[in-house]
Each structure stands twice: as C-alpha cells, then as structure tokens.
Amino acid sequence: MTEQERRTEEAGSGAAPDAEDRRGLSQGIAVAEGARPQKGLTEEKVFELNDVAVLYDGNPAVREISFDVFKNRITALIGPSGCGKSTLIRCFNRMNDLIPIARVEGEILYHGEDLYGPNVDPVQVRKLIGMVFQKPNPFPKSIYDNIAFGPRTLGMKGDMDDIVERALRRGALWDEVKDRLDENAYGLSGGQQQRLCIARCVAVEPDVILMDEPCSALDPISTGKIEDLMMELKDDYSIVIVTHNMQQAARVSDMTAFLIVELDASEKNRTGRIVEYDETQTIFTNPSDQRTEDYVTGKVG
Amino acid sequence: MARETRLHYQEELEQLEKHALEGLDFVVQTVDRTIEACEHQDVELAELVIADDDRIDGRYLEIHQSILTLLATQAPVASDLRLISALLHVMKCMERMGDQCVNIAKLIPVAGHEPPADEKMLRDIVTMGKQARSLITQAKRAFANRDVAMARDLVRQDDVIDNLNRECFHQALEIGDDADAREWAMTMMLVARAMERIGDNAVDIGEQVAFVVTGLFREFEDASHPGEVAPQPSTQ
Questions:
Q1: Which residues does A34 contact at the CB level (< 8 Å), separation at least 6?
Q2: Cβ A286–B78 below 8 Å, yes or no?
C-alpha cells in the first residue's frame, strides 16, 4: 500500500486522528451532535452542489454538477466507467484534498455551510461524512479494535464495549462475531469484512455514509445483506452510493443521478456530466432523457 | 461514440412484440368468422370459432411465458419495462376478445336454425362486429407505430359501437309480443353486449399505447363518469 493509499483509506474510514473539534466542520457550524437526521424521509438537504467541477492537473474530470442530496435518503450515482462517479463522491468528504493535483471548483454546501470554506477542518468533515470503499479494508487488528479505533482516536466518551457492540449491531454483524471479537478481522469473509467497515464507519456517529461500489467484490448473498443494511441505516443516516449495478441502484436508492462521459474536441480528455437526476422510480420507469433511457436499458455502453 | 449493446435482448423484445401483435390478427380473423356466423346463422362456422379459440389462448400463454422469462433474465427497465407491461395487458385483451367471440358463437345455435330475426337489429349487430374488427386493426396499428393520436381516436370509434348497442336494446324492447321473436332479441342483446366488450378491449389496448409512449397510465374515459376525462392517477 502506498503512502497516499494509506492516507486515503484511513481518512475515509472515520479514523480521523484529530479529536479536538467534534461540534461541526469548523467553529460555529451547527451540525454533528444534536443534528442527527430525523426518522422518515424529509426534503431537508444535506448537500447542495452548485456548478461543481473537479480538475486533475487542470483537466476537468467532472463539470457542471448541480444537484441536491436529501437527508435520510439513499442517493445513487450511476453512469459508465470514467464518467467521474468516484471522483464526485470523493468531493462529499474532501477525499480529493489528498490528491495534490486535484482541485474542486464550484460550491458544495453541507447543511448550508460551504464544505470547502477556509475554516472547515477536513478531518472533521471525514468524521461526519464517512466512507466505505469498493474493497473491504479492515485494519490488521482484531474485530474489536477495528471498531474501537475511530472512537478511541476521536476520544469519544462512553463505555467502549457498548460503542463496539452498538456499531456491530448497526452493521448487522454482531450475532456473527460476538463470540470472537478478539480474532483478526482478516479472518472474516469478504461480505463480513465489508459490514465490519460499515460498522467501523458508523462507530464514530457520522451524519452521512458514502459508499463507493460497496458490493462489487461481493457475492449475491453478501450483497443482499449490505443492501438490507443500507435500508436500515437510512433511517439514521443519509447515504450516497456509487454503483455499476443498475439493479442495485433500482433496488436500494430513493434518488438517482445519471452521469455520462464526454470527450473534448481533441478526443483525449474525458469529462463527466450529469444528464438526469430524479427519483429512482422515475429514472428506471420513465426517464426524461434519451441518454438515460439508453444507459439504464443497456442499449449503449 | 457509444456502441449499441444487448443486441440479442433487443431482438428478443422486438420478436416478442411482433409475436404478440400477431395474436391480434388471430382475433380479427375470429371476429370475421363470428360476424359471418351471426349473419347467416352458421352453426358450423360458430363451432369453428369455438375450436379456434385454442389458438388465441395458446398465443396468450406463449407470450405470457416469454414475458416472464424476459423479466427474470433481462431485468428490463424504462421503456422496455413499459412495453413488456403493456404487452401483458394487450395479451389479456386479446384473450378476452377471443372469449367474447366464443360467447357469441355459443349463442348462435341457441337462436335456432331459422329464427324470427329482425332485419334492422341483425344489420346493426353485423355493423357492430365490423366496427369492432376495425377497432382491433386500428389498435394494433397504433401500438406498432406508437401513435397516441390514433390510439385516442379509438374512443370515438368505440362510441359508434356503444350507440348501436343502445339501439339494439331499444329494438329488443319494441320487438313485439311474439315469444320466439323476444327470445331471439334477448339472445341478440347478449351478442351485442359481447361485441360492445370487444370494442372496449380495443380501447384498452389504445390506453396501453399511450402508456408505452408517455409513461403515464390513465384511462381515456372513465366508465363511472362517461363523457368526462378520467381522473389523473396519483403519482405518490
């Protein structure tokens, strides 16, 4: 693992080293504790993206991205390879900050506050907005320590055994591991490891969970468990998921954004753009854009 | 440049629609025979209509199975899903229209070999049959061409059948005191009712055309409030 990959994974796993300020993204932002999402679907916005572009070395990977992410909803980002789904989802918790050549333009508001504002602490951002990756990435530690790592690092108060149990229950893993918490997490199956990563993310009590193709390495049974888990978690968290699996997007998400990839005049640079953003039911039964129609029906690839 | 994919699936879907709409040709043929059997009290032709209904039912079952297979194996969405959903409705309408022809065919021997037929009423029933036939072919054409205007026009065409059905009812009321004539008229009322239902099924197919094209399902006319536009379905 390269240094950058290690930093990326640690940063995105809720294992932020700085535990000083857990009251908001920065001084004076009223989110985090006391701002937990309410039960049931609401139209409250968690993120507002206004004309967002992400550039690598000056070349836009995605551009003209404008849409809202709603509280307690599962929002799916779909589109062909290279359209910038992963690039976009990494903007939501400033993971692109870890890539020196990356630059984010436009505006991303998180509960109305500029996520990229000068006083915003990226570490605090990643505590509130956790991430689960395509490949399960447990630490080479015991199951217990995997969960306890984030809360300990953040100096969270409370009985650690309770925190671990609560997180593993939220991750739908408790019954399977409660008798072997001291065993190495690498001994778990792929599906269990991914649920452990979700539990680890939940342990630090985030507001949003980002999932970048969380089931692409899993079998259908494990995928089903993760999807069931997502449906349960959305009562308490807002979830954004990148998936290549159309049926998964259709099954689990409430809202779906479809991105396409465009070549510039030189046909060398590929840029992703949003074509359509709507309720998932509409996207999969009556999309308004022919390009969405062609993609979800599999007519073009 | 995006390349086309899932060509085999697209081909399967096209074949499914072609095969389903061919089923409507079977119904047209059956309606023709049914009209002729009514007009000439042809009991043998009526028996053929009854026997030939197996062909329509067979096509219905075949398409139904193909649709289940496509749903299970290809997980269609968007316009493909709407088409498949619509074809299920169309097939049900096709099967029902075939059954209505069977209902009529079964009434022909009941009416007797040389019944005391009222010429005007018989002519109206034949006209209803021909109009129903025309509706089925128009519904098929509207579906194949995804022509919503043509599909909507089915309502107007169906009004002709509805008016004739009411006319038949009045003629039956005024047919006189002869018991045989009254029995014949009552039997013909059942025939007229079956023809009227065939027209309604053709309109139902038209509604599916609008659904395939627009993604919104609504009845062209609300049976409980005739003459009014059907209420908009809730989107919630």
A1: none
A2: yes
